[in-house]
Amino acid sequence: MARRNTSTWPEVSDTQAPALTCALCEREVSELTQHHLIPIIAGKRRGIKPQDLPTLGLCSACQQYLHSTFSINELATQYNTLEALQENEQVARFVKWVKKQPATKAVKARGRDER
Ligand SMILES: [Zn+2]
After folding, report:
1. How much is the pTM?
2. How many CB atoms neighbour CB 78 within 10 A?
3. The pairing of beta strand 55-58 with beta strand 28-29
4. Residues 7-21: tens digit of each pLDDT
5. How far apart are the CA of 9 and the centre of ligand 1, in A?
6. Smallest Cα–Cα separation from 91: which of 65, 55, 64?
7. Ligand 1 centroid – CA 70 distance (Å)
8. Which of 24, 65, 70, 86 would staple 109 via disulfide (CB 3.0–4.6 Å)?
9. What's the CA-to-centroid distance between 27 and ligand 1, angstroms?
């Protein structure tokens, strides 16, 4: 029953999730979130369309962390480059920790969440 002859199919298996690498923690994950370096709402205030805003491919843990740590304003003005994020001590500490977490595990960005 199994169709073995799939030679007519293109070689590129883009249906399979490729290993994607988070720009911040460099873990390989199956899905990346587009993190807007300048949050959409801040971009709007500057008259920048969402599609013109620079983005980073981040894993959900990093993305969540950034948004739970910094305000929209901080992200837009101080942490709007990958370098600025990496240089932040808090972020560096988080990245160091999250690197050790398996990519398959859903990581709670707020480690001290009591819920
Ligand atoms: Zn990450």
Report:
1. 0.74
2. 13
3. unpaired
4. 565 555 555 656 799
5. 33
6. 65
7. 16
8. 65
9. 6
Residue-wise pLDDT for 29-64, tens only, equals: 989 999 999 999 999 999 999 999 999 999 999 999
Hey, what amino acid is at 44? K
Closest to 24 in 3D by CA, of 77, 96, 105 = 96
Residues 39, 3: Cα–Cα separation, whole Å = 47
Alpha carbon distance 46, 14 (integer Å): 36
19: which 2 tokens?
Answer: 């290993």
- Cα of 94 vs centre of ligand 1, distance in Å, is 9
User: 3-class DSSP state for residue 49?
Assistant: coil
Cα of 62 vs centre of ligand 1, distance in Å, is: 4
Alpha carbon 108 to chain centroid distance? 14
Looking at residue 26, the DSSP 8-state letter turns out to be -
Please give the DSSP secondary-structure letter assigned to residue 109.
Answer: S
pLDDT tens, residue by residue, 68-107: 999 999 999 999 999 999 999 999 999 999 999 987 766 6
